[in-house]
Design goal:
The complex is a heteropentamer, with two copies of chain A (about 200 residues), two copies of chain B (about 220 residues) and one copy of chain C (about 240 residues). Chain A has about 200 residues and is an alpha/beta fold. Chain A has helices spanning about 40-50, 90-105, 110-115, 130-145, 160-175, and strands spanning about 5-10, 15-25, 30-35, 55-60, 65, 75-80, 150, 180-185, 195. In chain A, helix 2 runs parallel beside helix 4 (about 130-145) and helix 3 crosses helix 4. Chain B has about 220 residues and is mostly helical. Chain B has one domain (about 1-220). Chain B is elongated. Chain C has one domain (about 15-244). Chain C is built from six helices and no strands. Classes of the chains: A alpha/beta (about 200), B mainly alpha (about 220), C mainly alpha (about 240). Chains in contact: A-B, A-C, A-E, B-C, B-D, C-D, C-E, D-E. The interface of A and C includes residues 119, 122, 124, 126 and 127 of A. The complex binds protoporphyrin IX containing FE, adenosine-5'-triphosphate (2 copies) and magnesium ion (2 copies). One adenosine-5'-triphosphate sits at the interface of chains A and E.
């Protein structure tokens, strides 16, 4: 089981953002994508989540190209972007419940507990603070299992206590043989982690 | 398959929660039908003459207004990204959305249409034909509408562009739909028109989800 | 509980007063309704033209009165709620709306049932009928806006603004519709000034009107109480939530 | 004062940029007017009879559709917060928004209305009356509409709720507007109707911004 | 010239968020509002920006209540929330231009230069990355002068280099006699700063 990206290049609106980006992930490994603002971190993560197609290069999951033969990749990863995918009219529980059962093998109570959301479970998501929304969104990650987590700025809006809690969850995910690919400007203090610095890839 | 029904269920619950969409699209339909006699004057003969047309145009517009949000809300909060990369084929996704739209925004109109027909002084027989025509014809509206909604998702003011793209495609439904009612007013059989409407709906059932799925993938990437 | 208590002191006094009125309103409803029904079904004479269908009037006309009266009441209590921020005023307006909508609906339904024998059709686009229908929409819009806010305090204000804009518009609507109708169609269908009203008709009509009013007061008290309790429950639930 | 015009200018430029709102609301109007002959049949007498009503109803609906976004777009991206706390009184803000809405979404309809009137077989005089009535009456639509838009800003599906709230309030404009055209068809003077429409517009000019400003502050807090 | 908040309490949807919050700001001072997720930082800032009314207590600018007599407060402060108030169809320059001239005394070129946005000035805002959007939004602060800056999570999405740059701008604003009230979970390394911890106000 492995995730391999080879010679990826990305173009947005006629502008080449990055090229020759290669990396690979094996079970238990995490990659921290770094780079200055506008380096293309979010674009890279969207490519890996099949939400954007690369200009060139390819991405393989278990040796199969994720854009051509996507059957085995689907359902194996979670993507968390900067939009929260929460329905304001649904409660925290309902939101997590829907995404978990849409993804498969839901375990909502476990997820609520893991991110200490029990007290907020019956609040409409529209009434949450930024950090509470983020936690609800993070709870999706453990509400249904997936091998690979693709996370764009998972720490933003979290307070110190929940950053630590999230780090624990991420460690456990890796310890259980999961993989993670994330971008953040904050220091996550995760060890060991491989760093992919987009500023260093020549343009 | 269970995901399919889950998605429909979610959309329906959402419609109920968010200011009970059902009452709302219904009221819009009713209000448009009410505006006409006000604009045209209360003479019974004139009203009966234009009744079927007004009802169908009102249904078209009510449908159009609610279409706008078929994918837009999910796009804006990032849900659409997750739905698209999820384990359900995009075509099925579109179909689930279309069914939810039809159930929440169109079916209620069909239920109330007979009452409005009476208020416009349509004869009893033609009201049966009207209801039948709406039942057979409106799925096309949701299906074709989905294509437009998918193409305009992510555009600001997509709503009005949507109307522009979609209304011309609605014209055949309008024409056959009105013809069915007019036929039954003239004591002729509405069956051929209903069959035609059904045929169009079946065609839309095949083309709609395919085209809309392609449109969605396009708008998102 | 740290939530500002004085806001809920008023409802307490309100509950005390209404609890005293409530039994009276129940009895009045029962007595007046029975009396009114007896008068209108058995005492009032059948019309020489319409026969017994004229008795629909005793259901219909007071319902129409109530529909108009309740909207006015809603607008007044909305204004009170908006200006003096009296929480019970908002709740009263909220509680009254569905009752008003029901009376409007009743007037519409009985009217159109009556229209069938009278005019040979269930509905004509007569001025009075049309403005009644629009009133129903105003009620529905008012109710919808209450539903659409998560925060009851905001909903109250939004609904109040709507009720007030609506009430300014009612005379304009009424006037325009009247005028529209007479322009297009000289009164041929509905001459609702009707035959001169005899006391034999007027008295049952008034009794029924009073019965409806008593009924309205009764239901209003029940609904306002329920609203107040619902709000308290909400406060308690959230307090509980915070403690856990 | 210069802020007032800046805001209007920004909204107009935005309307042009974002998929040229002007073409869009216009096309919607045209399409609705085109649907009617299709729904009702092509008989000239019938069309001329219902023409003024159809045109007015179409204008109402086109206006309604574009109203939805009057504050919504600014609300969603946080601009409305900044506008509200800025140095301009909220009432002026509403007025600027209303003017921008009228200029971008309503004025183009009025420009094209005579052509559509001709296509519906209206006599020449009445087309002058139609244009006049639209010019005097439609500001009310934007002004009253602003109240509904302000109250529903921030609600998902606010668009449809908006219709329900606003359409009953639009009815007087519709009735007087049609009456003006009908009067001129019947060779009578349209002036009293136009005066009435103007009166209603003046009233709305006072009530609209006040109520809408209150609604806005509410929806935002 | 001073900003004083006294005994503020905030209620949202029937829930008391905080009470008895008092603080004051004089020229050259900054307050860093801290607190766990959901403590009410954003709500407090919205109250100070007149976007939310407090349940009780009052806020004074130069001795005048900002909710009653708001004339002298208006135009004296900038508010930056978590929404970016950018029109995607406008370029970076047009966006800054509008807000600056709406607020008064615009100086757009200076603002572009201060946040190193010259190269992006003619890009439509819809094409910016998260961090680039944030910078465009921050540029509003210097594009037209205001005494008080109210900033909700000004650092989120910024990379290290721009955090440092923003810190400089904030220091200069304070040195010139400005005031700032901000909430962030990240460490801003600003000295001296007064800390207002909402977790410590008893409920
Ligand atoms: C759906 C149909 C109808 C509606 C919505 C309707 C509505 C109303 C309303 C609103 C009023 C109260 C007017 C006021 O107090 O200012 C009223 C009164 C009345 N209606 Fe109807 N009506 C309908 C049908 C009919 C029919 C079919 C008749 C019988 C011919 C009728 C006879 C009357 C009479 C006699 C009054 C009392 C007269 C008066 O107070 O001026 N209505 N109706
Ligand atoms: N629109 C709203 N309606 C009702 N309650 C709300 C609303 N927004 C926030 N709240 C509640 O108010 C409390 C404080 O929210 P606020 O956003 O001020 O917190 P915060 O300190 O900024 O948190 P964070 O660090 O997560 O941004 C939260 O418990 C939240 O549930
Ligand atoms: N929708 C878009 N259309 C066109 N260009 C875009 C779009 N989104 C981003 N870009 C451009 O692509 C480049 C990379 O953007 P991306 O969002 O991937 O950066 P990032 O590394 O995530 O930055 P940040 O740290 O600010 O989030 C930027 O220069 C940006 O201008
Ligand atoms: Mg990014
Ligand atoms: Mg916050």
């Amino acid at each position: 089981m492995s995730f391999v990206a080879q010679n990826l290049a990305c173009q947005r609106a006629d502008q080449l953002i990055f090229k020759d980006v290669s990396f690979s992930l094996s079970p238990g490994e995490a990659i921290w994508v770094k780079g200055r603002n506008g380096a293309g971190k979010s674009s890279l993560l969207r490519i890996c989540a099949r939400l954007l197609s690369p200009l060139s290069g390819h991405v393989e999951w278990q040796g199969e190209d994720i854009f051509k033969d996507d059957d085995i990749y689907i359902g194996e990863y979670h993507y968390l972007g900067h939009l929260d995918a929460l329905k304001h009219a649904f409660t925290v529980r309902e939101n997590i419940e829907f995404w978990a059962s849409f993804h498969g093998s839901p375990n909502v109570d476990f997820a609520l507990e893991q991110f200490e959301l029990q007290a907020l479970a019956d609040m409409p998501a529209g009434m949450l603070s930024q950090g509470q929304k983020k936690r609800t969104n993070l709870a999706r990650l453990v509400a249904s299992p997936a091998k690979l987590w693709i996370l764009d700025e998972p720490l933003s809006a979290l307070d110190q206590q929940y950053i630590a809690l999230f780090r624990e969850r991420l460690r456990r995910h890796l310890a259980e043989g999961g993989m993670a690919l994330f971008a953040t400007h904050q220091d996550i203090e995760l060890e060991p982690v491989n760093i992919l610095n987009l500023d260093e890839t020549a343009l | 398959m269970s995901r399919f029904f889950q998605l429909i269920g979610r959309d329906i619950r959402l419609a109920f929660r968010q200011g009970s969409a059902i009452t709302l699209s219904l009221s819009f339909f009713v209000i448009v039908v009410v505006l006409f006699p006000l604009g045209v004057g209360p003479e019974l003969a004139v009203l009966a003459r234009i009744g079927p047309g007004v009802l169908w145009v009102a249904a078209l517009l009510a449908c159009l207004l609610t279409l706008d949000r078929m994918f837009q809300a999910d796009f804006e909060d990032g849900s659409l990204d997750l739905l698209i990369i999820g384990p359900m084929p995009t075509e099925m996704l579109v179909l689930a959305k279309v069914i939810a739209h039809w159930l929440t925004s169109v079916l209620p109109l069909i239920v109330i249409a007979p009452v409005l027909g009476l208020s416009l002084n349509l004869p009893g027989d033609s009201i049966v034909a009207l209801t039948g025509a709406l039942l057979v014809g409106t799925p096309t509206l949701s299906l074709i509408g989905a294509v437009g909604a998918a193409l305009t998702v992510g555009m600001r003011r997509g709503g009005v562009l949507l109307s522009l793209l979609i209304l011309p495609l609605y014209i055949p439904v309008l024409i056959f739909g009105v013809a069915a009612v007019d036929a039954s007013i003239a004591q002729l059989s509405a069956a051929p028109h209903l069959l035609l409407l059904g045929g169009v709906s079946l065609g839309a059932l095949v083309v709609g989800p395919l085209a809309a799925a392609a449109g969605l993938r396009l708008s998102l990437s | 509980m740290a939530i500002d208590l004085h806001k809920y002191a008023n409802p307490k006094r309100f509950l005390a007063i209404t609890s005293a009125i409530y039994p009276w309103s129940v009895w009045l409803t029962v007595i007046l309704l029975l009396g009114g029904l007896y008068l209108s079904l058995f005492v009032a004479p059948p019309d020489y033209q319409q026969g017994d269908t004229v008795r629909i009037m005793f259901v219909h006309v007071p319902a129409a009165w109530m529909a108009l009266m309740i909207y006015t009441l809603m607008a007044v209590s909305s204004a009170v709620g908006l200006i003096w921020k009296h929480p019970v005023a908002d709740l009263t307006a909220k509680a009254a709306a569905p009752i008003g909508a029901c009376f409007t609906f009743l007037a519409l339904v009985t009217g159109s049932l009556w229209g069938q024998p009278m005019w040979g059709t269930f509905w004509v686009w007569d001025a009075r009928l049309t403005s009644m229908l629009i009133l129903l929409f105003l009620y529905l819009g008012y109710m919808a806006i209450w539903e659409s806010f998560d925060d009851p305090a905001k909903a109250a204000k939004a609904a109040a603004i709507l009720a007030l804009v609506g009430v300014i518009n009612i005379p304009i609507i009424r006037f325009s519709v009247d005028w529209w109708n007479t322009l297009h169609q000289p009164a041929s269908v509905a001459t609702m000034d009707g035959p001169k009203i005899h006391t034999t008709i007027l008295i049952p009509l008034l009794v029924m009107g009073l019965a409806y009013t008593a009924f309205f007061v009764m239901v209003l008290i029940i609904r306002v109480k329920a609203e107040i309790l619902k709000r308290r429950l909400r406060v308690l639930q959230i307090a509980e939530l915070r403690e856990s």
